[in-house]
Every structure is written in C-alpha cells, then in structure tokens.
C-alpha cells in the first residue's frame, strides 16, 4: 500500500467537500486500490485495515483502530459538490452527491470497507485526460486535512511549478462555511499549517505569497517544485577543455558532464542547475 498511486479527476480535486484526516485516509486508501486496467462499478467493495493505516502513517495500531471507527461513522454522511464532468467531457453541471453508498466497519477485524456511490465512479476510474496522480505515501504522514487538499491542488499543476488560487474559491472548496473569516486566522489555521506539512512530509517544497485586488487580499500565489533527491548520485568527473578538444566537442558550461543547454531545457520550475543535473543523471541511470 505504501507504493500505491492515487488517481483523481481534476474535477474531483477542485470539488467542494470537507473530510477529516482519518476520513481522507480511508477514502484515499480505497482510491489507491482502484485498478487502472479494469472498469470500476459501484458494487466494488474496498477495504482498509487499521494495520494498513498504522503502517502508512507511522502510528500505533490501537490509535489507527480507534480513528478508523470514528471516521467510518461520519463518512457515510459526507457530501461532495462537483462542478465539472470527468475527463473534461459534457457541459458544466453542479452535482451534489455522497462519496459512498455503504460503509461497513468490522470491529473484530479492525477494518473499514466501502462502496463508492455511483455518481463518484467516473471521477475515479478510466480517466484519460484532466486527472491528477500522486503516491499515497506522499500524504501518509500528514495530520492536516488542509495539507492533503493543498498538496493535491499543487500536484494538479506540478509541471508548471506555480499556481494562483482565489481565496473565496478556496474557502468554498474547503467548505469552511464562515470559519476563519479574518485573513489572519485563515493564514494561521489553514494556509501556514498546510504549507508546513507539505514542506515536511511530501516530495514537494512550496513557498507562498499573496496578491491584492484593490485594497483586499484576494489571491494566494504558490511556487513549488521537487525536493532534491535524498540519495544524490555521486558526481561524475567533468571533462577538461583539453579532453573535450581531444574528442572534438566542447563542455563549456557543463555540470556533471551535462551541457548547460540541456539542463536549461529540462529543468523544473524552482530547480537549481546542480539539482537538475543530478536528477537527470538519476533518470538516466534508472532508464
């Protein structure tokens, strides 16, 4: 389960809903079990165990058992408001539905099993375009529900490395419903903890700032990128100009033997030349 991938339609990433951390762990644990090579139906039953959650989140089994039970009792009542069709097809519709049609908690086994509701199925299965993918382990150690939601919103724009978000839209997407009305409270209890969780537990680093419309702060600006590899590749010896001339080529500006022009073309947003060169070397070895 630690290596499982989560696939969500972008419309679901941007939907309006509120789930606790433990409810998200159940939902994401089940989504990660959806097979990519087989259609999903609303009759499919997915199971998450207390041991799964304990192993993934790094918490005790007894704590995971207690949290699963409490989350399972609330999950059936949770609603989600969808504003777009999956795969970018069909006209825009506002759809109010539930995440699941059934939740089964087996106390003696410490498991939660669920069936997704029929309207949710197209947002989780057979996604061909406009979807977001990330590893379940990326959010496994987060204990902020906002951290998980923010991480998904950043992953949606992972290639771009930056995203601007309207604060009013964000309040609706997170279903804050009048909570943290003051901007200072919104920053303190929503934005700052989420950013801290992403920087501490996920593969991404993120920085943020704000933009005003008139005198009012209306948007949040996020800049983010991949963290340097924890296991850097041993640096290769850079050829000297003499070596290059002997072989009839130039290495001017090369880093670890990779021409600067190639590094610039393949570098990700916010990535230094050296980190980009190391990543390219890693990718070349894996390839």
H/E topology pattern: EHEHEHHEEEEEHEHHEEHHH
Strand content: 15-25%
How do the strands line up in the largest sheet?
2-4-5
Number of domains: 3
- Gyration radius (Cα, Å) is 22 Å
Label the overall shape.
globular
Write the layout of secondary structure elements.
Blueprint: E1 5-9, H1 10-13, E2 16-17, H2 21-31, E3 46-49, H3 50-57, H4 61-75, E4 79-82, E5 95-98, E6 100-106, E7 111-116, E8 131-135, H5 145-155, E9 162-166, H6 167-173, H7 183-201, E10 204-213, E11 216-226, H8 241-246, H9 260-266, H10 273-286
Antiparallel strand pairs: 1-8, 2-4, 3-7, 4-5, 6-7, 9-11, 10-11
Helix pairs in contact: 3-4, 5-7, 9-10
Textual characterization of the structure:
- By secondary structure, the chain is α+β, with helices and mostly antiparallel strands.
- Helices cover 36% and strands 22% of the residues.
- The strands form 4 sheets. It has a 3-stranded antiparallel β-sheet, with no helix packed on it. Strands 3-7-6 form a 3-stranded antiparallel β-sheet.
- α3 packs across α4 (61-75).
- It is globular, with a radius of gyration of 22 Å.
């Amino acid at each position: 389960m630690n290596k499982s991938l989560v696939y969500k339609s972008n419309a679901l990433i941007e939907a309006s809903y509120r789930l606790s951390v433990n409810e998200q762990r159940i939902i994401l644990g089940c989504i990660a079990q959806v097979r990519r090579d087989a259609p999903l139906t609303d009759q499919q039953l997915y199971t998450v165990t207390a041991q799964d959650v304990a192993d993934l989140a790094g918490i005790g089994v007894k704590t995971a058992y207690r949290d699963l039970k409490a989350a399972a009792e609330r999950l059936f009542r949770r609603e989600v408001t969808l504003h777009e069709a999956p795969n970018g097809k069909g006209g825009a519709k506002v759809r109010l539905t539930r995440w699941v049609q059934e939740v089964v908690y087996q106390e003696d086994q410490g498991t939660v099993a669920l069936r997704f509701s029929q309207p949710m199925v197209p947002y989780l299965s057979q996604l061909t375009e406009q979807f977001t993918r990330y590893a379940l382990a990326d959010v496994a150690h987060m204990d902020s529900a906002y951290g998980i939601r923010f991480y998904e919103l950043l992953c949606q724009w992972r290639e771009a490395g930056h995203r601007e978000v309207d604060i009013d839209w964000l309040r609706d997407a997170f279903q804050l419903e009048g909570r943290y009305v003051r901007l200072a409270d919104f920053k303190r209890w929503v934005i700052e903890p989420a950013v801290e969780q992403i920087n501490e537990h996920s593969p991404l680093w993120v920085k943020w700032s704000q933009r005003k419309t008139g005198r009012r702060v209306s948007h949040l600006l996020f800049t983010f990128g991949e963290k340097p590899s924890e296991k850097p590749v041993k640096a290769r010896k850079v050829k000297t100009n003499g070596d290059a001339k002997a072989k009839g080529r130039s290495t001017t500006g090369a880093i670890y033997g990779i021409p600067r022009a190639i590094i610039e073309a393949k570098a990700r947003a916010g990535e230094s030349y050296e980190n980009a060169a190391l990543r390219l070397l890693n990718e070349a070895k894996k390839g």
